[in-house]
Input
Amino acid sequence: NENAELQNGRWAMIGIIAALGSYAVTGNIIPGNSNEDNFKIWQRAQGRAAMIGFWAIIAVYSFTGTPYGIV
Output
C-alpha cells in the first residue's frame, strides 16, 4: 500500500529527529541515568516530546479528519 509506505517513511524521519534531539540534549542516543542531572534533563525532554506528539496528532486530525493522516 502506497499510503502505508508514506506513513512509515514519515515515522522513520521522526525517529531520526528524535534520536538527534536525544543526542543533543543528553549526549547519548540511549541515555542512562548514571548522572542525576542528565536523567532530569532526559525526563524533561521526554515530556516535551510527548506534548509535541500530542499537538501534532491534533493538527493532523484537524487537517485530515482522521487520526494519523490515514484516509
About this structure: The radius of gyration is 15 Å. The chain has a mean pLDDT of 78. Helices lie at 2-26, 36-64.
